[in-house]
Design brief:
The complex is a heterodimer of chains A (229) and B (593). Chain A is an alpha/beta fold. In chain A, 37% of the residues lie in helices and 28% in strands. Chain A is globular, with a radius of gyration of 17 Å. Classes of the chains: A alpha/beta (229), B mainly alpha (593).
Chain lengths: 229, 593
């Protein structure tokens, strides 16, 4: 459904991709693992056109995304949930959700509140006044409102308390059951292991491993070399 | 309230698109003139005034929309300052179009039918129309509030003000959002202009007058904040009114003192908030690499400049001197904005203080010319010490605005301190010493001074000092982390830039033999900015290239038409569209393939 073929990209002096290839199938949860600065975020940003792709191709349901403006990529059905959450701090929770709302997305407020009941209670609060975990829910809910078929999650477990991560993993699992494909960049192997079907390991802008989570678990030396566990 | 209308539009446009729209005042002026013609032409009796106001506002809104779609949209990807250059070009164009269509004489509009009388309020006669305008203010504010807080479009606008990229990630087309904002902002400016018709005489300089005031309101209120604009418009309005009563001779200074005070205490305005990204003043302007100019070319050019003047007609020698002065002036600004990443909107302060410093010495101390010329940079540097102390505390657009405020304070002082500066009449008879008075001799003096200044600036840019400044520009926090005192270096850069800007002013004053408050005006701050951008901000060499080009264009075009601003504006627009990185920058990029 989403396929990257030999993607090269440059983003500032220190974020570079040297031919990244990966694939996300229908309804699949794929994790992209790697250290800080390995190229995880840059890969996700290249998909949505925030970072310019200099070579290679990105295809979504057979259609090339190279040169397509960010808002069009979003409307085609790819939703990036950014690492730093980027809640509109001055807007209420409802208004934050309204920014992404599309009538034809299949995602309505009740459906989002069903997944994240906590947000319904917070509906009139300012986005900036939410806790980290609540903001993480809001940023995903906001992207869901656009009706994505592939969700790109950039380090969703980062900076969250272990208890919150637990609850949050439940949310992602629920999304998976609803058929949303997910590509998530993670450093937290434990979190990725709970949710992902397959994994890629990226280091210095190149893919170093591709396989099932079980295969990754079996390869101790690989995990030592590229993941800080 | 008129001030609120125009300032809220300006603030809105900046908040969402990050374009500092210099042309906002021009839209205002255009609407006033349009309303003037329409009110006279419409055969609707008493209603024609009101219909004319509405039509003029709508028409200007349409013009704004067109400008956004046809021009600005092409340069959103270019560095932000080139958008500024584009809006400045529009100022020139609109100004001349107005002259072309309506002539240069002042026009007096009709009064508003039904609101012609005056009402006694607390013992003072107040025109009914003014009261109606005061009442209109809250209505417009309420309408805007409804738009922003009760419609999805408003939600999008507020979201985009906070984080444009995130809005795009959620599938919202920024281009259409920007067009809408520009249309609304221009409409508000148009409404403001048209509503002024019964109150003020229409002049061809009303754009400049209002834009400075609107900037003050926007900055005091907080860039991008409409409620802030309302609050600030009231504050500034009250200060204006009382200022005239209490300190008639310092009324001009007062508003800018207030603005400077607000910025020093609350650097992001009363109701604004700090920039999320914490960008430095340069923003993304310095995207490209430095363009190296071959040494042979510089040597050749220097030889040419040494050899040719005796062969030229006097007129061109004077033009060359002026270019030399402005080349140095622009280069001194380049140290700030190119190397230091600090974009100053008030570099005229350096130029004008240099010019006045020299002129005042000659006038009141009958100082010898060379001594006075030497004093020019010192006077400017001393001023820069004070101004810089406050300004380097701010970043980004607020730095620019505070420099503008200080330059305006200096302008107001020169303008109103009649006994010392001669006010409007300026200081006359500031000529070079007799042995330097011939054009060619003065040319060589200017060449020596300007050349030396450029050389020092070039060395400074490459010295550890310049490298440190660049580090501070590109990543202030990292620079601080490795032990660089960012503020101290920026302050020093400000003083050095002031010094050479002052020297340029000194050269200029003896060229013209006189100095007027205009040498401290906004236009003089904008000119070197245009020159640096025109030449290309990446390299110091861009500054003299831009200065030469700008002045030559100016000279040539002035000869053929009195509407030189129109031609210059169109050429500037073309240059921005063709060379979105400045001439040297674009050539450099092509050269690299």
């Amino acid at each position: 459904m989403l396929e990257l073929a030999d993607v090269h990209a440059v983003y500032g002096p220190s974020h570079v991709l040297h031919g990244v290839s990966l694939r996300v199938g229908d309804g699949e949860v794929v994790s992209l693992l790697g250290r800080n600065g390995a190229g995880k975020s840059t890969t996700l940003k290249a998909i949505v056109g925030v970072v310019e792709v200099t070579a290679g191709d990105i295809r979504f349901e057979g259609r090339s995304l190279r040169g397509v403006p960010t808002h069009r990529v979003a409307r085609l059905g790819i939703g990036l949930v950014p690492e730093d959450r980027r809640i509109f701090a001055d807007l209420t929770v409802l208004d934050n959700l309204a920014v992404g709302a599309r009538p034809d997305s299949g995602w309505t407020l009740p459906r989002v509140f069903d997944l994240f009941p906590k947000l319904a209670e917070l509906a009139r609060r300012r986005g900036g006044s939410l806790s980290g975990g609540e903001q993480q829910m809001l940023t995903i809910a906001r992207t869901l409102m656009t009706g994505p078929r592939v969700l790109l999650l950039d380090e969703p477990s980062e900076g969250l308390a272990p208890v919150v991560v637990q609850a949050f993993a439940g949310n992602v699992a629920a999304l998976k059951r609803q058929g949303v494909a997910i590509l998530m960049a993670e450093q937290n192997l434990k979190f990725a292991r709970r949710l992902a079907d397959r994994a890629y390991v990226i280091e210095k802008g190149e893919i170093r491993f591709e396989g099932t989570m079980a295969a990754l678990d079996a390869d101790v030396s690989l995990r030592r070399a590229y993941l800080s566990v | 309230m008129v001030l609120f209308l125009i300032a809220s539009g300006l603030s809105l446009i900046f908040g969402v698109t990050r374009v500092v729209n210099f042309a906002h005042g021009s839209f205002y002026m255009l609407a006033a003139y349009l309303a003037y013609t329409l009110a006279g032409a419409l055969p609707l009796g008493g209603a024609s005034f009101y219909v004319a106001v509405a039509l003029a506002a709508l028409a200007v809104g349409a013009v704004g929309t067109l400008v956004e779609i046809v021009l600005l949209r092409r340069v959103y990807r270019a560095p932000e300052l080139y958008q500024l250059l584009l809006t400045f070009a529009l100022v020139l164009v609109v100004s001349d179009v107005v002259k072309l269509v309506w002539g240069s004489e002042n026009k007096t509009g009709p009064s508003a039918p039904g609101l012609t009388g005056a009402v006694r309020v607390a013992g003072q006669l107040v025109p009914t129309y003014d009261l109606a305008l005061i009442a209109l203010g809250p209505c417009v504010a309420a309408a805007l509030w409804w738009l922003f807080y009760r419609t999805r479009w408003g939600v999008l606008i507020r979201a985009a003000t906070l984080d444009r990229e995130m809005v795009a990630l959620l599938g919202v087309d920024q281009a259409r959002l920007f067009t809408g904002v520009f249309a609304l902002g221009s409409l508000l400016a148009g409404l403001a202009g048209a509503l002024q018709l019964p109150r003020v005489a229409l002049t061809t300089v009303m754009d400049a007058a209002i834009i400075t005031e609107a900037f003050v309101v926007v900055v005091v209120g907080g860039m991008g904040s409409v409620p802030g604009a309302l609050l600030a418009a009231v504050v500034i309005g009250v200060i204006d009114a009382f200022g005239v009563l209490l300190l008639p001779r310092a009324s001009l200074v007062l508003t800018f003192v207030v603005m400077a005070a607000v910025l020093v205490v609350r650097p992001w305005g009363l109701m604004g908030r700090p920039e999320a990204q914490g960008r430095s003043a340069g923003g993304t302007i310095i995207a490209g690499r430095e363009v190296a100019v071959p040494r042979a070319l510089i040597v050749g050019l220097a030889a040419l400049l040494l050899a040719i003047p005796p062969l030229l007609p006097t007129f061109y020698v004077w033009v060359l001197v002026e270019i030399l002065a402005f080349a140095l002036f622009a280069a001194s600004l380049h140290l700030l904005m190119g190397t230091g990443g600090m974009v100053s909107f008030g570099h005229a302060a350096a130029f004008g203080m240099g010019a006045y410093g020299a002129a005042l010495l000659v006038r009141w101390a009958t100082a010898p010319m060379l001594l006075a010329l030497a004093a020019a940079p010192l006077a400017a540097a001393a001023t820069a010490v004070v101004i810089g102390f406050f300004c380097v505390r701010l970043s980004s657009i607020y730095f620019a605005m505070l420099t503008l405020a200080f330059a305006q304070i200096a302008y107001a002082i020169a303008h109103q301190w009649y006994d010392v500066t001669g006010g409007d009449n300026g200081l006359l008879g500031i000529w070079p010493a007799r042995w330097l008075a011939s054009p060619v001799r003065y040319y060589y003096l200017a060449l020596a001074a300007s050349g030396a200044g450029l050389a020092v600036l070039a060395v400074a840019g490459r010295a550890p000092f310049g490298l440190t400044l660049r580090a501070a520009r590109d990543h202030p926090r990292r620079a601080e982390a490795v032990g660089i005192d960012v503020r101290a270096h920026q302050w020093l850069a400000f003083v050095v830039a002031g010094f050479f800007g002052g020297l340029a002013g000194g050269i200029f004053v003896f060229l013209k033999g006189s100095v007027f408050p205009e040498s401290l005006a906004v236009a003089v701050s904008v000119e070197p900015l245009v020159m640096v951008l025109l030449g290309g901000v990446q390299s110091l060499a861009g500054a003299p290239v831009g200065a030469a080009l700008y002045k030559l264009l100016d000279t040539v075009v002035t000869r053929y038409t009195e509407y030189w601003q129109l031609v210059l504006g169109v050429i500037l627009v073309a240059i921005v569209l063709v060379f979105p990185r400045g001439i040297l920058g674009t050539l450099g990029a092509r050269g690299r393939g």
